[in-house]
Amino acid sequence: MGNNGSESNIKHMKNVKHTKHRKKEGGFSGQIGFVMAAAGSAVGVGNLWRFPYLAAKDGGGLFLLIYLILAFTFGFTLLTSDIAVGRRTGRNSINAYSEMSPKWRFLGIVTFLVPVLIMTYYAVIGGWIVRYVVAFLAGQGNDAALDTFFGGFITSPIQSSMFAIIFMLITAWVVFNGVEKGIEKYSRILMPVLLLMIVAIAIFSLTLKNTDANGVTRTGLQGLAVYLTPDFSHLTFGRLMQILLDAMSQIFFSLSVSMGIMITYGSYIKKDVDINTSIHQIEIFDSGVAFLAGMMIIPAIFVFEGIEGMGAGPSLMFVSLPKVFHSMGIIGTFVGLLFFLMAGFAALTSCVSVLETIVANCMEIFHTRRKPTTLVLTVVYTIASVIVALGYSTFYIELPLPNGSTAQILDLMDYISNSFMMPFISLLSSILIGWVIGPDWIIEEVEYGGKKFGLKRLYAVMIRYIVPVMMFILFLQSAGILSWFE
Ligand code: PFF
Asked: Which of 353, 359, 425 to mutate to test the pocket of ligand 1 (most atoms within 8 A of CB)?
């Protein structure tokens, strides 16, 4: 118990005993089942689409370095907290926070709002992937490799809405019928296949070579150097803060932390699961896929577009990958189809976990049953997805963001949830865990049953001092307040 817990809190916490795996029906089969399910939620468009475009926008190596440092310090701390809170309380986010301290129930509610926002645009990106599956199926791989293909697609109101609706309905179908368990079975086969494909495509990307109209030849290996070598020249304080915020927001999104999902997952795991080892496995898997996705996309964009192409933003994966497949010749159509199918599957497992969390929470809040709840949410999110998809045509806006990019509706939702709300949530939950109930409460849970928690000192220092300070700074940065002082 932390020294700083007030008397009433200590009394309250004593009542929150180590739960004996309250949610028996939904429990995971064991350590591997849990790690696979958590990885299924974690590995998605965040790794394949979001990570490479942020890494390219922020100059490759420097972003990568900062990302890896933050992932194994902040990511580790936040993931440990979420999973241990979930297992110790046996509740999902809203009730877990009120159980930790009744006064902090509001934090559970704010946490729940993050997946509510993410769900408005996740199906839109899923729809983009489905569009490419259809293109490769129809043998339009060559068209997909044209610069105008992606832009033409997302600015077409009918097409972009239609594909977002298709992806949304597939997700809703899975959640409605409660077949996530079946999906997990396929995950065990398809996730490793996806990983193998990414490795193979990444290796192929390194062999690319192209001479542009100005006669400049660029190679995949030069692109790899851009991806791996941190460039500290032109680094200003403002830019460092932007990169920090981008990397941190990516960690939140990619690991699905600080949004209640991992609390819910934690509540499903048995007491004999080694939380510490599971967390390292999830982290290594998630960062590994992101790293390889970058290796597959960044050298390719460098070869075909040069450094100027790196700022392409959200379109990056969809513009550069089809070019890689195109340059593979005839086999590229097949590889492209298979890749986008796997990516669609990874996106589906993540999207299902977002919608599932929202459904589960709404059922508890409104005391409703699964099917009607899913139906109502499907209608709401289908409308929301169409509005977000139309953000590139009918509802086009150009909104400058404090991270230096210009946002359409999708980027705005992404920014509010990942860059703005999540530092705020992590700030408050680190104060709750670090100072109100004390880090020992989490450490005890990780060590339950004599398990080892090798990094517990790091955890305690991170959660009490470093996380709150850093999150406060990032929150000011994300709100645009810090840039006033530059
Ligand atoms: N972590 C997922 C990804 O990287 O694509 C995205 C995600 C899944 C976000 C689940 C939120 C969530 F609740």
From this structure: 353
Rounded to 10°, the helix 31-42/331-366 angle is 100
Q: Is 1 a domain residue?
A: no
Print the domain residue range for 322: 7-485
Q: How confident is the model at residue 216 (pLDDT cuts 50, 70, 90)?
A: very high
Ligand 1 centroid from CA 168, angstroms: 15
As a whole number, mean pLDDT of residues 382-392 equals 98
Cα 293 from Cα 289, distance rounded (Å): 6
- Cβ of 41 closer than 6 Å to ligand 1, yes or no, is yes
304 C-alpha to ligand 1 centroid (Å):
30
Q: Say how far apart CA 212 and CA 303 lie, in whole Å.
A: 9
**CB of 346 closer than 6 angstroms to any ligand 1 atom:** no
State both tokens at 365: 């809040």
CA gap 132, 115 in Å, rounded: 26
- For residue 248, how far is its CA from the centre of ligand 1 (angstroms)? 14
User: Cβ distance 66 to 244 under 8 Å?
Assistant: yes
Averaged over 307-329, what is the pLDDT? 88
Angle, helices 237-255 vs 76-89, to 10°: value is: 30
Residue 102, judged by CB atoms within 10 A of its CB (0-12, 13-18, 19+), counts as exposed
Query: With contact defined as beta carbons under 8 Å apart, do 11 and 20 qualify?
Result: no
Indicate the angle between helix axes 61-70 and 220-228, nearest 10 degrees: 50
Q: Tokens 């005993």 sit at which residue? A: 17
| CB-CB neighbours of 371 under 10 Å | 13
Kindly state whether residue 2 falls inside one of the protein's structural domains.
no
In ligand 1, the atom with minimum distance to the C-alpha of 346 is: 5
Counting the structural domains of the chain, the total is 1
pLDDT in tens, 53-68: 999 999 899 999 999 9
Place of tokens 């307040």: 481
CA distances from 243 to 56, 264, 306, 404 (A): 11, 30, 21, 10
DSSP reduced 3-state for 2: coil
For residue 56, give every residue at least 6 positions away whose Cβ sits within 8 Å of its Cβ, in sequence order, or none.
297, 298, 301, 310, 311, 312, 316
Confidence of residue 188 (pLDDT cuts 50, 70, 90): confident
Token duo for residue 152: 């033409």
Supply the CATH number for residue 174's domain.
1.20.1740.10
| Ligand 1 geometric centre to CA of 322 (Å) | 24
260 domain residue, yes or no: yes
Q: Report how far residue 65's alpha carbon sits from residue 94's, in angstroms, rounded to the nearest whole number.
A: 35
Q: Supply 154's token pair.
A: 């997302």
